[in-house]
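[AMINO ACID CHAIN]
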Amino acid sequence: MKRRADLLIDGKYKRITIWDALDWKKNRPKLWEIYKDNIYSICKKPENKVRMVFQTGKNGIVQNSYFRYYNADFAHKGEGSEESYRHEFFKECISRIKRLEIRWKGEALTIYPDEILREETVIMDDGSKRIVDLLVHFKRAEPSIYVEKWEGQLAIEVNDTHPVDSRKISQMKQKGLSCFEFTVSKWRIRENFSDAEDEEKQIVEITEKLEGENAGYIYGKLLVDSISRKYFSTKLYEDEKREKEKVLAELYQIKKLYGQAIDENKGLRERIQLLDRDINSYKNKLSNLDMKFKMLEQENTKIKSSFWYKLFGKK
């Protein structure tokens, strides 16, 4: 049972609630008779819309009125066709969020939605069609890596009476569609209202509690954490680039050490050259001393052989 539907008027779809339908039936019966067969499900794509009918609440309790699928055996039976009010209520609240704060297992993600679509039909890789409660499209997130990693899409499933079935999770993994499950069974909300304004008041109140701009968030399970081909290719490129940059840095370090060794060797060569000059200088001085010593020896020999040395030198 649903409290919202789309009414086709002059080729355009207009979102209506049970309160609008009740008003038309009571105050504009002729128009209601014309358009009552133009009620459809609220998904965005016209080709996926399913005809619905309005059902007045039993025993004249108008607050319990609802929209139901015209054909109870249509292809997507079981996917939101018999949803609880709480389930539909939180889909409405989340669809209004401007900054979506998501939390799971110590992880935090901020999404700035371009649009949040309700009850969208997704064609799976096996060709089957599955309806997701909410489909978020976004081009901005924090961390920004999720824009590319998830290709700017996230399915949100609202869990009130039962979790997402394993087959649907498997299909979304194959599809590469990330999926987050938000459990709402512990939230306390009213389900009976006097009029549209009374119901809208509660929707606004809960939406503000969930709104990221008010420090609100939704906590749950990340059922599917997909990795897009583009992100995977980019990651491989970045890993390869990082490895090459590491090798390059090592080569630069080796070059630096080599340069330092060359500088040190140059200093040693210069010191050796200075030592060589000193050695040559000392060699020259030694050679001069040798020459002087030889000259002295020659003088000494000459003196010893002289007459006067022989006469007075010996005793």
User: Anything to note?
Assistant: The chain has a mean pLDDT of 85. Residues 237-304 form one domain. Residues 57 and 65 are 4 Å apart (CA to CA). The chain has three domains: 1-74, 81-227, 237-304.
